[in-house]
Input
Amino acid sequence: MTSKILILMFGVSLLLSLSGTAKSSQISTASFMYGYIGGSLEFDEEAHPTSTITYNLTVVAYLDVTIYNLTLRISGLVKEKWQTLYTEQIISYSMTEDENFTKQIIVTLPHNTSGRLYCIIEASTDKGFGKTAFYATYVRTITYDELIDLYAELLTNYSTLQADYNQLLTSYDSLNLTHSSFVSEYGSMQTNYNLLNSSYDSLTTSYDSLMFNYDSLQEDYTYIKTKYDASLGELNIVRTLMYIFTITTVIFVATTVYFRKKAPYVVLRKETAIKPDKE
Output
């Protein structure tokens, strides 16, 4: 950014240097003197194409003199070709000593006028003659004063941009540090993510294995549950039979005990009665 601004300022400085003969004054003067007459031509130092400029021609007589011919011709470059823009001619005009007059000349510049206007003043009197040629008004798209204003504006803008640049540079440095910190954190987070991703894959594998074992155990459970239900039914039957057997056994034992309580006395007596005969 700074280099672009410096280049722009250099360009403005170059334009100012190219207008080296242009002065800060808006009005310039060219003088002439021959044949005992003299004078000056005042003109605008700078003008834009299509603008209207004013020339003031002043003539002074140093002695009584008769002007046979006084011609002012103003030419300019129009489309890169010289073209006469205005001609003023004074013929057979008598003047007394120290007499003077001023003639105002209005010139409208064509659209494609460029460069400097070229003026020729020719005069012949009864005392002599002479000719003067010189460059006059600069015709520019941007005048010297406008360039000065633009330069001041650009300088102000440059100072503002320089301050903005310094502020942005500070912000950039801060953001760069933040970016570096984020990059470091991102690298750490990426490492953690890879570890977590690896753990996730391991857990997924373990989950799949456990799910497979769960399904297998679920099948085993279903099988065992079926067998258990069947065994439980058989157990209930056996339990019922045992109950019946137990009750039957109890009844049988009770009956046996009952009869044994009654029978032993009779038997014993019989045995006692028989024993003596054997002896």
About this structure: Residues 115 and 129 are 30 Å apart (CA to CA). The helical segments are 2-18, 144-262, 264-278. Residues 20-139 form a domain with the Immunoglobulin-like fold (CATH 2.60.40.640).
